[in-house]
Amino acid sequence: MNKSYFFKFLLAASLACPLVGSASSEPWTIEDVLEASSELSRQMRDPEAAPQKSLPQAFVLVSFSMPEVSLERLARDAKDAGIPLVFRGVPETKPSSDSKLPLLNPQSLAAFQPLIESGADVQLNPELFSEFNVRQVPALIIREESSASSDGCIQSPKAVIVPGDVTLGYALDRLTDRKDSIGDVARALRTKLGNRP
Hints:
Largest sheet: 5 strands, mixed
Structural class: alpha/beta
Distance between the termini: 39 Å
CATH superfamily of the domain at 53-93 and 103-145 and 154-193: Glutaredoxin
Helix content: 25-40%
CATH class of the domain at 53-93 and 103-145 and 154-193: Alpha Beta
Radius of gyration: 18 Å
Strand content: 5-15%
Number of helices: 8
């Protein structure tokens, strides 16, 4: 199973449930998350059930170390453009009296709640940070998937990274003059943002 897909599922599943129990619903337990992840694993093994990836893909790599205003602005723009916000991992929680809490617990996932509620697609994917050696966030990445050439060899994917604390519109504008599939994607995503800077 692809680790990033599993992290995305765990984050989505954990945030879809209430972080605090109420009379009408209970918070998810670890068993609930494991059961749901087993179902996701079954769906991933069935190729007809798995969603097809479009080429190329766009991501905005972010962190909670960024200014809150920048993160909120990127969340709004990324939601409208249909680009996921990708985090390396979950933020560390404050020391608590319960040292047995797992890494993915309601306290560690609570930081993502405002972004999820704004409609942003939030993902955890440490592999993207490693693959592109990203040390500075935010960073817009548009990449093509690897493909097989006519001789059967796998070609490495082509990717472009635009780092810097700029608006998503500005980052996309830097790529719209390209005459390749990455430029096509940048223009299509830029159109979704309209006249926003």
